[in-house]
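mind reviewing both lines:
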Amino acid sequence: MAEDSFFERMRLGLQRTRTTLQQGLDTVFSRHRADAATLEELEEVLIMADLGAAATAKVLREVEQRVRQNTITPDGEGLREGVVDTISEILLSTSPSGEVWPPEACPWVMMLVGVNGVGKTTTLGKLAHQFRDRGDRPLIAAADTFRAAAIEQAEIWAQRAGVDIIKGQAGGDAAAVAYDALQAARARQLDRVLIDTAGRLHNKVQLMDELKKMRRVLARAMPEAPHDVWLVLDATTGQNAVSQVAQFHEHIGLTGLVLTKLDSTAKGGIVVNIADQFQLPIRYIGIGEGIDDLRPFEATSFAQALLAQE
């Protein structure tokens, strides 16, 4: 997909968030001066869009500093430029550099985790499709053994993406499925192992322990595996997504985030909030239901689409 085409789809996907922001920002940016009252209004608008207190304070400090240093004009257009640039910088500070797996890792092993209902299996299938399209040879591990439907769904995605799949029985040992998938990928000289895991509440220690077991089993087969553990977040959950990141990161250690359903929320600022709080790279974002609507995250384009004028 051409980048300008995806930018337009991302702009459309963020329309609900942007509309909410614009209702307040149009008033703020129509001011002739960046005075205290104007900045207070800007603060309220950003917090309402779920940027969070810390990220909002960072934006305001940077905008004020740029006005004082005359690097932006002290009017509505200058404010807009300062906000877009600062949000871009927050997001860029966590942006991954280079490929999403170490060059020496073959296969690259990734676990996809998250709470129930965030769309992990669908996300995994879309990732497999995109990796396959770019010439990689991925393998899906259907390690969500708690739901027979998840195994069937993973099979459908494997067929759609044209990739191999390793699966177990419903109710079986999820760690064993992950282990078998890694061994199969090595034997077949495949590039990637994408492991689907069962949804679990982020505040249940026993369920988190099962993910820790999977990590231990994978490490026995390949000391550096898993190379990545990505948390899938439903952006419509707003501030609840913050607590999910905190809990999963504390218990199993995350290396990246995937945010879905950004087209269904008016509070897409949660992306900025999470990036600022946790300094974890946002790997992919979903801005629609189509197979190509899950795309690698690009900080500057996201900030521009978030704050673009209609």
User: Anything to note?
Assistant: The CA atoms of residues 71 and 198 lie 50 Å apart. Residues 108-297 form a domain with the Rossmann fold fold (CATH 3.40.50.300). The longest strand covers residues 228-234. DSSP finds twelve helices and eight strands in the chain.
